[in-house]
Amino acid sequence: MIAVTGPTGNGGLHAHVVDAIGSRIATGALPVGSVLSTELIEQEHGVSRSVVREVLRTLTGLGMVQPRHRVGTTVLPVSSWNLLDARVIAWRAEGPDSRRQLGELLTLREALEPVAARGAATERDVETVQTLRAQLRRMEIAFSEGKPHDFATADTAFHEALLRGAHNDALSQLVQTLLATLHVRYAGHRPFSEQTAESLRRHHELVDAVAAEDPAAAEAVSRTLVREARAEVLGAADGEERK
Fold it and tell me: In order of start, what are the domains of the chain with their CATH numbers?
């Protein structure tokens, strides 16, 4: 690997090196039990010893490595990692566990997002409804104009508004995890398909249920929406197995 030339300042260097090493661990290039050499990291990335220490502290906090006396900083198994951290999700999406991870994250989304929809319908938050309608309109325009990036951006903003609209402190701590799920979904799968028009109709039903302050309907529509999204992404067979 070559020295870093893009980011400037210790903050940028730190993030760059964390990303590089975290990705190598998640993809298996640095397998479990590997010992990370401080000196080698300095040389490969052209950073100072203090930056390397901060990098290793960050990776330790993510559960990916552990300092061991007389051994050094050692790569830990995936069972020790913070699998809900958005950075870990992004790194694993590039590795051999990408499909498994996506399935697990979609299961998490299926469990949590309908609860958030119920909460949003209960909160009577006019601003949430306005945001949902605005993002849905952006999705429709992007679909009609064939702009997949704009569609993915609007869809992610739609679901973020829904999650935050629940005003649930526990759920709010998982917002970035669930948004990372959407990013992974769109990174690996095209946003437009034969089901897109039907999905937009479901989104309309969801907004209408939240606006009507109907928690039961909002939860039901949201559950249908995320289940259909799961089946579309992972395949109809997987969707059938979960019925």
Answer: 9-79 (1.10.10.10), 86-241 (1.20.120.530)
Q: Distance between CA atoms of 89 and 83, rounded to whole angstroms?
A: 6
In tens, the pLDDT along 14-40 reads: 899 999 999 999 999 999 999 999 999
d(C-alpha 90, C-alpha 27), whole Å = 11
Q: Could you give the CA distance from residue 215 to residue 235 in angstroms, rounded to a whole number?
A: 29
pLDDT classification of 6: cutoffs 50, 70, 90? very low
In this structure, what token pair is assigned to residue 110? Answer: 């299926």
Element of type H or E holding 228: helix 215-234
d(CA 187, CA 231): 17
pTM of the model: 0.83
Here the tokens at position 146 are 């064939």
Q: Are 112 and 181 in contact (CB under 8 A)?
A: no
Three-state secondary structure call for residue 34:
coil
Strand order in the sheet with 35-36: 35-36, 72-75, 65-68
Give the CA radius of gyration of the chain. 21
